[in-house]
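Summary for the steering committee. One of the milestones for this cycle was to obtain a three-dimensional model of the protein with 2-acetamido-2-deoxy-beta-D-glucopyranose bound, which we needed before selecting residues for the alanine scan. The sequence and ligand used are listed below.
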Amino acid sequence: SQHVSREPLAPLRPAPILPVQSPRPVRLAVRAEGAGDGRSPGRPDRRDCPAECDCPPSFPVAMYCDGRGLTSMPSIPSRIKYLYLQHNHISAVPDSAMVNASNLVWLMLQHNQIHSDAVGRKALLKLERLDRLYLHHNNLTSVPSLPRSLRDLRLNHNSIDKLTAADFEGMDNLTVLYLHNNAISDMGSSLKGLVSLTLLDISGNKLTKIPESLPAHVHQLYLESNSIDSVPEGFLGGFSQLQYVRMAHNQLTDKGIPPNTFNVSGLVELDLSFNQLERIPIVSTTLQHLYLQANQIKEFSLGSFCSFVDISNFSKLRTLRLDGNEISPEDIPSESSQCLRQAFEIEI
Ligand SMILES: *[C@@H]1O[C@H](CO)[C@@H](O)[C@H](O)[C@H]1NC(C)=O
Ligand SMILES: *[C@@H]1O[C@H](CO)[C@@H](O)[C@H](O)[C@H]1NC(C)=O
Ligand SMILES: *[C@@H]1O[C@H](CO)[C@@H](O)[C@H](O)[C@H]1NC(C)=O
Ligand SMILES: *[C@@H]1O[C@H](CO)[C@@H](O)[C@H](O)[C@H]1NC(C)=O
Ligand SMILES: *[C@@H]1O[C@H](CO)[C@@H](O)[C@H](O)[C@H]1NC(C)=O
């Protein structure tokens, strides 16, 4: 009683960790010009707000300079904690730009044109309270010197082509690291010691193998769109909290996947679509979503899901995509319903 769906299934992306943005303040007309001096003892001086930015009186620790066509860094009053500079044409972050910025907690610099050689060696390093740094969609070719306090670092969509062991060293609190869509061919030992990392996205690079020393506590590991053809024995065995593994659009073959690689409990979603697999790999009965479309799978092997079936022992698989392979719905054995009794979407 399989429901063979024709609807293409969207891969289930866990909700991205979005910044909890404070509501965007409406520009208030009361700033400076003539309205007294805008100051009273103990209140922040609003006149230190650069003309090209907004510093809402209701949120005196934030400065909004996003999408203003800026080509250089504005001056930054020292009270500012949340700085929005995204979607400009800023190409350089010199040390001098950050002299007053030591209270920054969030720095949003995504969608600019920042080049690695135009980032002062100490410019970011000195921001010792920085928690979130967004540098995605820039022109970086290497990882700048960064403060160790970061929790959320986004460097995706740059042209980073090499990493060093020092790049993320000592970032004990780093939880989210986005490095996707760069030109990295080897992670080296750059990930070593990221004890708090839960989300690692290194998809869309030039990796040919699984990076060594992957952080032990990752929940989400995204490796799709690289050139990985094999995985090491016991590759997923060492992770205690891994739930989402995405390796679509690589060059995986059956030969490159040791038996039981993906038979690890705890996994919720496994995406191996757009590879060169000829068999369905053995997966754990706890897996819920398995994407295998666009491989070269020739048989529906029920044993990949259940080695044994009884009243309490069956696959928890809910989504199974097998379209774009060399099998058809008739290849599903009738006893499958015993094993795959929770599958509500099987696409062949
Ligand atoms: C730093 O603060 C001083 C004093 O408020 C100010 O004169 C200067 O322009 C600021 N520099 C930058 C780069 O923000
Ligand atoms: C910077 O990156 C953008 C998009 O990634 C690219 O279009 C542009 O040519 C790059 N600019 C330079 C000067 O490298
Ligand atoms: C990590 O966070 C803790 C608690 O907020 C803090 O004490 C520690 O200094 C941080 N570590 C780094 C490397 O900044
Ligand atoms: C998967 O692993 C479990 C426990 O480690 C084992 O009992 C089971 O036989 C394996 N599944 C298959 C299909 O080999
Ligand atoms: C299901 O069967 C497998 C293989 O015999 C076994 O390893 C596993 O512990 C069983 N699980 C449950 C929930 O009984």
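Key point for the committee: The chain has a mean pLDDT of 87.
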